[in-house]
Every structure is written in C-alpha cells, then in structure tokens.
Amino acid sequence: MKVFFAVRDALWDEWAPHLRAACPEMELSREGDPASFDAVIYAPGWPEDGHAADFAPFTRARVVQSLWAGVERIVGNPTLTQPLCRMVDPGLARGMVEYCTGWVMRAHLGMDAYAQDGVWRNHVVPPLADERSVVILGMGELGRAVGQALAGLGFRVAGWSASGREVPGIAAFGGADGLPRALQRAEILVTLLPDTPDTRDLMDAARLALLPRGGWLINPGRGTLIDDDALIAALDAGQLGHAVLDVFRTEPLPPTHPFWSHPGVTVTPHIAADTRAATAAVVVADNLRRAMAGQPLRYLVDRARGY
Ligand code: NDP
Ligand code: OXD
C-alpha cells in the first residue's frame, strides 16, 4: 500500500516511525507521482508553500485520513473528492479530558480568589462538585469523554448537541430549543463543537446573556464559535467571570489582540489536545487497511454537515 504523507516536513520524524510500526506493509512517502498513491494522510499546514491543498492528482487514493479532529480547513475543498476521515485518537481524548478538567477545577474551586497578599480569606470556601453545574456544547468524541470525566468527579453535567445525544450520567439537551435551556444552567460552559456554518458565532451577545452571571467559559473547540467582541463586552459587564480560550479565529493569536491583555481572559496557544502519534498511528493503520480491503471506514466525515 502506497501512502502519501501530506503533512508539514517538521512532523515527519515524529510520525513516520509510529506509522511504519503500526502498518509495516505501508510504503510511506512525501514525494512521487500523486496518481500512484493508494491513500493520503493529511494535516493542516500542507502544502508549506501556502497554496491550497490539491487532492485532485491523487486519482487512486481511496481515503484522505486527517490527523486532526477538526476538518473545517479541507471539508469544503473542491479538489477533495476522496472519502475524508477525521481523527479520533484515545491520546487526543485523554489530553482534552485533562485540559478541560484542569480549567474546570480552577473555575470551580475559585483558585484565583486566594491572592498571595497576606489576607486570610477563610470565608471563601468552594462548593462541592455536586453543587456545580457544567454544560458542554458538543457531545461528540471529545465532549462525551470530558463530560463523563467531570460527571465522575461529581459535577452536575449537561451536554448539548444537534441530535440531543443521550450519554449516561449526563443530562441531554438537543437542537435549537435545547440550547437556551442548557445555557441557563451553565455555571461553567465548555465549548467542544466543530467549526461549521451552523456553529459560527453561536455564542453571540444574546446567548452569552443567558449564562448565569459571573460564570466561566472554556473554549477548546474553535475560535469561530464565539463572537470575540461580544465576549469582551460580557466580561467587561461582569456577565462572564472569566474565559479560557485555546482556539482563535486567527492563529497564532496576533500580539495586539485584546484577548492577550484582558484580565478576564486566559489564552492558551491551541494546545488543549494534541494528536499523539503513538496512539493515533494505530487508528490510521486500521483505516488504511479498511480502505484497501473495501471495508467501511471509521470516522468518516459527513460533507453536508461539515464534521
Ligand atoms: P465530533 O464530530 O465527534 O462531535 C461534534 C459534536 O458537535 C457532536 O455532538 C455534534 O452533534 C455536535 N454538533 C455539531 N454541529 C452542531 C450544531 N450545529 N448544533 C449542535 N451540535 C452540533 O467532534 P470531536 O468531539 O471529536 O471534536 C470536537 C471539536 O474539538 C473538533 O471539531 C475541533 O474543532 C476541536 N478540537 C480542538 C482541539 C484543540 O487542541 N483545541 C483538539 C481536537 C479537537 P451530534 O452528536 O448530534 O452529531
Ligand atoms: C484538531 C486540533 O482538530 O488539534 O485535532 O484542533
């Protein structure tokens, strides 16, 4: 099986050994006649010359396997006629669980209340997790993993998704009607939705106003989910207590962007969860073998929905 590695050069050394170990029958390459490849492994950043990715010459490829979970950068690419699969990786999910749990605990425990200023604030006692309501927008692979971890810690967790997907231990909200009801109970809101035409600017001024006053918003999903100006206005007005933002409309976040200097914002540089080569190579190998055997592919992207 010949596989083209359509990923930035810098990632070759990290990925090639894991991919070859997981799939010894694979001939992995970054060059050669595109029409000779059976499959393509892709990640944003390719090609490095700044041109849009062109999948048209890969006429024989049975699958384009993304190393990223979010596929908004290629799902609408007109040259991409091959089946597109996104990344679902146990390491990625664990990273997202740890990131979200860490920031939820900072919000929940009010860790920022204990300034090192000589003041003994023993009247500030955090509630227990079962007195705290956390809402997750997006009950996909990552939202479910995060929700179950938080529910396991005792939080009152609710999840919102297009289908109103039921997850044990998590209150389910679905569709347009369910969104306001979910937001009204979100003392801590975690946004884990994909970037699609339907999710862009979802958290606008009107929806931010539905949140309980002074709550936290944690966004490791995509920057486009939130109206930046409305977010800053909500923070300035005290409607929102704090925002932890990992993803942005422009990345890297420009040095002059007001998020950097706003005291109510914590910026992390799109590090919430990385695709881990050691675990993800096994997922990739499985899908490549399925493609070669003509079996159903896993984590196939629905082009119409955009995720
Ligand atoms: P999935 O595709 O598994 O899940 C997406 C979820 O969003 C589903 O529950 C889906 O609903 C819901 N959804 C999609 N569109 C809508 C809508 N219009 N209204 C309501 N719900 C909607 O994705 P993952 O959980 O694997 O990943 C989620 C996102 O996390 C990625 O797309 C990516 O943007 C981001 N991400 C960020 C990383 C980081 O490091 N910051 C790392 C990895 C991913 P339904 O279940 O009904 O289909
Ligand atoms: C992803 C990401 O989508 O890292 O995988 O954001």
- Give the end-to-end Cα distance, rounded to a whole number of Å: 27 Å
pLDDT averaged residue by residue: 97
Quaternary structure state of the chains depicted:
single chain
Structural class: alpha/beta
Bound molecule kinds, no repeats: NADPH dihydro-nicotinamide-adenine-dinucleotide phosphate, oxalic acid
Rg over CA atoms, rounded to whole Å, is 21 Å
- Sheet with most strands: strand arrangement: 8-7-6-9-10-11-12
Tell me how many strands there are: 12
Proportion in helices: 25-40%
Could you spell the SSE succession in H and E letters?
EHEEEEHEHEEHEHEHEHEH
Number of helices: 8
Low-confidence stretches: none
What composes the largest sheet? 7 strands, parallel
Q: Tell me, briefly, the overall form.
A: elongated
Strand content: 15-25%
Explain this structure.
The protein is of the alpha/beta class. The chain is 28% helix and 16% strand. It has helices at residues 12-22, 90-109, 141-152, 175-184, 205-208, 228-236, 258-261, 277-293, and strands at residues 2-6, 27-29, 39-42, 64-66, 84-85, 133-137, 156-161, 171-174, 188-191, 215-219, 240-245, 265-267. Strand 11 (240-245), helix 7 and strand 12 (265-267) form a beta-alpha-beta unit. Bound molecules: NADPH dihydro-nicotinamide-adenine-dinucleotide phosphate and oxalic acid. NADPH dihydro-nicotinamide-adenine-dinucleotide phosphate is lined by residues 69-70, 92, 138-143, 161-163, 165, 192-196, 198-199, 220-222, 246-247, 270, 272-273, 307. The site of NADPH dihydro-nicotinamide-adenine-dinucleotide phosphate has 29 residues, from helix 3.
